[in-house]
Amino acid sequence: MSLLFEVAKTSEGGGRRAELTLPHGVVQTPVFMPVGTAATVKAVEQGVLERIGTVARTPMSQKRDMGHPDSGPAMSGTGAEIILANTYHLYLRPGHELIARLGGVHRFMSWDRPMLTDSGGFQVFSLAKLRKISAEGVEFRSHIDGSKHFFSPEHSMAVQIALGADVMMVFDECVETPASWERTRDSMGLTHAWAERSKQYWVEHRGEVPWGEGSGLRAQGPEGETGEVGWRKLSGPWGLGPGPSSSHQALFGIVQGGMYADLRRESAQRLMEMDLPGYAIGGLAVGEAREVTREMIALTLEQLPKDKPRYVMGVGYPDEIEEYARMGVDMMDCVLPTRAGRHGLLFIREDPKDRRSAVVRLNIKKLDNAEDQRPIDEGCACMVCQRYTRAYLRHLFASGEPLGATLNSVHNLAFYLETMERVRGDLGPARTAGVGGSG
Ligand SMILES: [Zn+2]
Fold it and tell me: Most exposed: 2, 37, 92, 237, by fewest CB within 10 Å?
C-alpha cells in the first residue's frame, strides 16, 4: 500500500474534496504544500509549520493539536499537512546516504507528517551547470562546488527511496521555454522512457525505504497495534508519532508536453498506461501567459483518471491555487509564500473582512507602514497577525533582522493554507469513516 485516495465530492466546476492517506498521515485535499528545499521550509521551524493554520478563531491556548493521531478525525486548518523536499539539494548536501543512515528525511528533520520529494530533474535542468543529456541520463556539475554528478531515472529513484518521502516523482526532462513542437515532442519521448524506467526501479526497490519492511532502521512499534488503514502506529525511540510498516512510497508520473495541447494529451495517455498511484502536471508556470497555464491544466485534467490524485507542480499566486483547486487539481506547491515573505511582500485581502475579496500585495518595507499599528491583514487569524503590527514588521525588515523573514513567511503560508481551507469548505466535507477505504 502506498496511498489511499478517497474523493467525497466533485463540484460542477470539477473541484474535488478528498482525503489522501499516506504512510505518515492523512492529507485533506485540495492541498497547498509548502516547499522545504533543503529539508527546511526556509526560516520556519517544523513546530510552527504544524500549527500555522488559521481556521479556528480561538485563542492559541484553546487550540487543539489536530496533528496528533488521537485528537479525533483529521481536520484542516491546523498546519501544513504535507511539505516538499528537493532531491537535488539533499543529494548534494548533506547527501542521501547520510540521510538514509539517520532513518530518512522525516526523522532527520523531525517531521512526522507526509512529505513529497521531486525527482531532482527540475533543479538539474535549472540550477546545475554543464549538463550533458543522453538517453541514459544527465551528467551535470554541482552549482555548489562544481563537482561532477550523473542522474539517471534509476539513480533519482535510489536517492528518493533513501530520503524516504511518502510520495516521490518520476525523473523527467524539463524542456526549455519556449520550445518548438518538435523539440517538445522529442523531450516528451525521453520523459516517457524515463518514467518507465523510474517505475521499474520503484517496483523492484520500494521496500528499501528507510522506514520500510526491509530496513533495519525502521522504528519498532507495539506488536499488533495497527492504524485505520492497516499501518502500524509506531512510537519509535525518537517519538515521531504514527509511522508506516507494511507501506511504501508512492510514485507519481509527470505529464509534460509544453504548451501543445496534442502533446499534453498524448503524454497523459502514455503515463496513464503505466498505471501509477498519482499524476502531476509539470512544465507549467515557466513564463507562459496565465490563460495558457489554465488551458493546459484543464485539458490535462480531462485526460487523467478521476480516482487518482492530480498535482500541479510549482504554482502559483493565491488566486491561482484557488482557481486550479476549483478546476479539480488536488495538490499544489510553490516557493512563492516563503520567497515573497523573505523579500517583505505579504499577501492580504483587499477587504480584510471579506476573505473572498481580491488578493493584494503589501510591501512591508514602505515608509507608510512605519507607524502603522494594524496587523498585516486584519481578517487573518494567523499567529503573526494576532500579535504583531505592521510597524514592528517593517522595523524588522528594515533592520535585516532574521525574525522578519520568519514572521513574513509564516503569515504568507497561513494565507495560502487559509485560502485552501476555504476552498475545501466550499466543496463540502470529506469522508471521514474511512475503514476499509473502498469507493
Ligand atoms: Zn496573518
Answer: 237
Crossing angle of the two packed helices 153-163 and 181-205, in degrees rounded to 10:
50
Question: Tens of pLDDT along 369-419?
Answer: 999 999 999 999 999 999 999 999 999 999 999 999 999 999 999 999 999
Q: Which fold has domain 1-54+80-217+235-334?
A: TIM Barrel (3.20.20)
Q: What are the two backbone dihedrals, phi and then psi, of residue 350, each rounded to the nearest 5 degrees?
A: -55, -45
- Tell me if residue 145 is catalytic: no
Residue for grid cell 487559509: 418
Burial class (CB in 10 A: 0-12, 13-18, 19+), 85: buried
Tell me which of 112, 172, 330, 333 is the catalytic residue.
Answer: 333
pTM for this structure?
A: 0.88
How does residue 174 score in pLDDT terms, banded at 50, 70 and 90?
A: confident
Residues with CB under 5 A from ligand 1 (ion): 380, 382, 384-385, 411
Task: Note if 354 is an active site residue.
Answer: no
Whether 139 has a pLDDT exceeding 50, the answer reads: yes
